[in-house]
Amino acid sequence: MLNDHIALPLNTAISAILDDWTREGWLRSVDHAFTCLLNEESGEQNEIVLLLAALTSQQVGQGNICLDLQQAVSEPMVLWPEHWAVEPQEETLDTPPAWLRQRPIDELAAALAKSTVVSTPGQDEVDDSRPLVFSGNRLYLRRYWRHEQEVAEALEKRLVAEPTVAEGLPERLAGLFPQAQDQAPATGPDWQKVASALALHSPLTIITGGPGTGKTTTVVRLLGLLQARHLEGGEDRALRIRLAAPTGKAAARLSESIGGAVEALALDRSVKDAIPREATTLHRLLGSRRNSRFFRHDRHNPLHADVVVVDEASMIDLEMTAKLLDALPSDCRLILLGDKDQLASVEAGAVLGDLCRGAEAGDYRADTVAWIDSACGEDIRDFQADSDDQAPAIRQHTVMLRHSHRFSAESGIGGLAKAINEGDSDRSLDLLGEADRDVTQQTLKGPDDTVVESLALAGYRDYLSLMEDQRPQEHGDKAPLDEETRAWAKQVIHAFSRFQVLATVRQGSLGVNGLNERIARKLKSAELVKNHHGWYEGRPVMMTRNDYELGLMNGDVGICLKTRLEDEDEARLRVAFELPDGKIRLVLPSRLDGAESVYAMTVHKSQGSEFNRVLVVLPEQDNPILSRELLYTAVTRAREGVTIAATGHALIRAAVERQVTRRSGLRERLGL
Ligand SMILES: Nc1ncnc2c1ncn2[C@@H]1O[C@H](COP(=O)(O)OP(=O)(O)OP(=O)(O)O)[C@@H](O)[C@H]1O
User: Which amino acids does the record list as binding ATP (predicted)?
Assistant: First the structure.
């Protein structure tokens, strides 16, 4: 048993453990460096405090907001990737879980409570000189504790409701949401209508739902209603509505679907014209500044907006959520849209997932049920909590859309997505095994099975053929008109975006890097492209960083094309990107920093994008990254067809059965 009064010099026992854990890959070097700094700058010598600090930092690297001590001690293996599952043996190195298992939580808590590098809210002030915060058995890096606190406080301020039903509201909602226009279930509430009614009622609304459940359609109708009501109120200016999404791709997709939905609104032209068609990225909305994690807009310089809609909210990490909430004026409505079951952001925190976990149940209070009845006549009593005390306030602002208008829950992509989501591996495999479906499984003989390249070739042949067939003609010895070149480039980009290979890992022949190489070679040998390395016509690339000068964002995809502009004597290779406003930007390859081939992309990178068909390639061996959320996200990128290529059923089964939960204290703070 450790004695926390003994001040151990870091260069001996603790240092040895830190070195071992880092060498074994259990800590990142940044976690190691942070811990050493803690010792050097603050003089902290206690083994428990230092090693817990290292593990907390490591947990942030895993996407968690904090180290949950209770869980760390009682079920340490849950907190770390499975490759740490080495049972400690006498005289062998302690794994972090083994180290934790030997220490009762009281001992850990006592050491933290005494430490001068740890603040304990409730006991002392959280001050900026202490890098760690210990709260409710959770250990945080101070920055993340603050973000969590800011998010919880800002959300709580928004958990209020406007008390009255405006005159004529039921009729208006009925007008905007006529009886189901397609095969929507005749029974059960019209959740789209419920979502709009709730949103009209409060400054914060969260609308979650799987692909094609009508989130965008709902929000457009809601915006129409808000704007119409506002303009009729005799205001001298329209509501300032801003639309945003976490990535450029997601923003472009939102812009695309909003345009059509606004036109379809049964409202006056003046109202439609007062609804924006273009979405921007969250970074642009908040005004990102080069080399700074601060934004131009914050509480001191809030956004000029009355309504902010953020799509693909599952991709927003905790820090970004804090910044967004900080920049909103207090009277601005916030509407978050997203699919709670998708992968969380790469950065720490899964705010939408945290807020919406369990949202299926509804958990509405009696007054919410009554409000919905009076505002739109929908009966949500089946989703009422047993008592108001058990109904968290945030649930009164949350609606889950349940019916996919894109695909039915019984078949194909919809059925597979549902089975994966429910962790039902047998059903997932059954669906993949059935003939005549839009979802199929391809069993690979091994990691180098060439069927992968053949499937990719079949998917990519179209855009490469179109690139050749539709190439703009030169006019005599004159170049084609620039607008012809750009129109062609746009066609090629759109054709490319119909199919995508998705990989779950980067390394290995079934990882992104290996697949890019293999597919490029295959296309070259099929003479669809002229080269398979360097820059060549037909090469699709993805930006891996933001380039503000070029207006290109991390994740933007472009295609390398041979183009001759009007004032040029000969053709040059340029990479064509479609910007969010639909314009084509042509960029010389030498201007692009950090662009990678994108025949295959990671599932993480594909979030916010959709393709007609996807080929999902699983790695050769099971890997902790393979999870239900990952597979669900991959499968729901497809509109028409999915093939999952794997070396066996076991991998698919393992992925469906593994669930990822990010640790944070947000749910507890919000009474969830
Ligand atoms: N109530 C409805 N009745 C009939 N069709 C609908 C209804 N709501 C939405 N749709 C249609 O369903 C499709 C998907 O809707 P929408 O784009 O709003 O869903 P979404 O949840 O935003 O989808 P995703 O986020 O997956 O793109 C659209 O074609 C839309 O017109």
Answer: 209-216
